[in-house]
Design brief:
globular, alpha+beta
């Protein structure tokens, strides 16, 4: 392929890196305008009174051993502090019919002035430190909870690369939600006729969450991974899979009512994958 054509296809901020901060501020301004003047009605009300019906609950470990780097260990500690600052803005939020949940509209800018500290964030193909880093774990959990409900994901970005090999993964790869203030956001819309409520809390070892609603639902949901694998290319390894959702009727004799394709993931891998049959070193 002609090199000039390859350059033409690269994003402008990749060819001209000095434009990147200006582009970020532009996108942030557009998102602020959308929040305040767009067509969506955003969820803003929190309630300490729990809605009666539990829809789905999940938890994720707060700490992962990624490497022996002391900086990464500090980022893991700081992530928990950032979680503790963000969760009070999210816990108990009620998404009424026709409302949209926006992570960043509720949490606000994760600045040092508000007490947020440097945690790990993934950006432009590498892991680096950033104020408020680590909040993606909350986004991942919220997205996973929403997938197990009739709520609709209307805005969500996947991580653009896979930085670390799996460690005890129990949910499919590619079901997370990247976050970067404020335009890389997670929006969850309520198309139903009843209110839903998000609960989030910390223990010593886990980030925990659940979705609750007013009335029992007639269905439950199961997320299925299909065609997972790795492909080696000239530029390195690529990870791929597909994510599907099954809607299953509750009650005796309940079967699969529908199957829905959600995502096709294909991302660059930043490590040497261990393929099936290679064993454990």
């Amino acid at each position: 392929m002609d090199f000039s054509l390859q350059m033409h296809r690269l994003p402008l901020t990749t060819r001209l890196p000095w434009l990147y901060p200006f582009r970020v501020r532009q996108r942030q301004a557009f998102r602020w305008l959308r929040w305040h003047f767009g067509p969506e009605r955003f969820a803003t009300q929190r309630s300490g009174h729990l809605l009666p019906c539990n829809v789905y609950r999940h938890q994720s470990k707060l700490s992962r051993h990624l490497s022996e780097d002391p900086q990464e260990h500090l980022w893991q500690i700081n992530k928990v502090r950032n979680h503790a600052l963000a969760l009070p803005h999210l816990d108990g939020i009620v998404i009424r019919p026709g409302e949209t949940f926006s992570f960043w509209r509720l949490v606000g800018r994760p600045s040092a002035a508000r007490g947020f500290v440097e945690g790990m964030e993934l950006s432009q193909g590498r892991a680096r430190g950033g104020i408020g880093g680590g909040l993606c774990q909350i986004g991942n959990l919220l997205h996973w909870l929403a997938l197990h409900s009739p709520l609709q994901i209307t805005r969500r970005a996947n991580h653009s690369f896979d930085p670390f090999p799996d460690q005890g993964r129990i949910i499919p790869y590619g079901t997370g939600a990247a976050l970067f203030y404020n335009y890389i956001d997670l929006w969850i819309y309520n198309p139903t006729d009843q209110a839903f409520q998000i609960r989030l809390w910390l223990t010593d070892t886990f980030l925990k969450g659940e979705i609750r609603c007013e009335k029992h639902l007639p269905h439950r949901y199961r997320i299925v991974e299909r065609m997972p694998g790795f492909i080696q290319q000239e530029s390195g390894w690529v990870r791929h899979n597909e994510i599907w959702r099954e809607t299953i009727a509750k009650g005796e004799g309940g079967g699969i009512a529908s199957t829905e394709f959600l995502y096709a993931n294909r991302v660059q891998v930043m490590y040497e994958p261990r393929l099936p049959g290679e064993g454990v070193p």
